[in-house]
Amino acid sequence: MLHETTTLTDLQRAIMRTVVYFDLFRHPMRKEEIRRFLQVPCTDEARFAEGLDALCAEGILINRAGFYAPKDPSRHIAERQADEERARSRMAKALRMSRFIGRFPFVRAVMLSGSMSKGRCAVDGDIDYFVITQPGRLWIARTLLVLYKKVFLLNDHRNMCVNYFVDTDHLAIEDRNLFTATEVMTLIPTWNGPQCEAFFRANTWAQRTLPNTVHDLTDHLPGKDGWFKRACERALSGAFMDEVDEWCMRRTLDHWRARFPEFDRAQFESALRSRRYVSKHHPRDFQRRVLDAFQQRWNAFERDHVLEPTTSLIP
User: Fold this and answer.
1) For 86-283, which CATH class?
2) What is this structure's pTM?
């Protein structure tokens, strides 16, 4: 039975923000995950454990078999465990595909993103890749990869979904909020460790948003370009190929505008950002939907537990 009013410490409030956010994805959290994704620094594990236990004792947070959620997570635990097993079984294929993508002309680094980077893969889940390219050749690299997927993989999104590209001169992610910080800090480097490390250095804002999250980078990632890739890049050099790269971008933009005529300018920029140095293809605008849902869910949590409202969680 909850008291008429609920008093939470700053740490407890941060804990609840974290579990409420991940509950949007039906993702009951383990104890260490909660600490990892807190939006406040937390080095005192004993204090963290005390805060967690107090929330459970009050019935504000529910613990089932070591999984925590704002409501009874029992029905989602088996789903999560099945997704985790599926992700483990598909990881070898994801790594092979990463290395294959890394050998395409003008690709400079590859990282796993999406649900696979969180250790989960649904029955119909895709394997998503975040790709870093050479400046001025992003759209050529993207077009070659998309053509390969459509022709040789019969447009199989499950094993090859390349939906976010940046170039090495523009590594900083423009959207800066909890959703993108979580996505950045969970990326799994799979091709060219030093370039992946440069990406994280360019996005220290994400580390500040999630200060307890660190990357386990390794210098032993593959990343050496073969002779065929180098030959292709030489053949595709020169001022004319600058025009080809821009043509690829404009053709893609025309296709997306025709396909998503309902998007206004702001929606298009959020979901389908397209410039010479970035390509973002998220037509469902998952970022905005998640942030809006999180704000609503957090507002409801504050009302239900009679907490003093916080400022907007969405920048």
Assistant:
1) alpha beta
2) 0.93
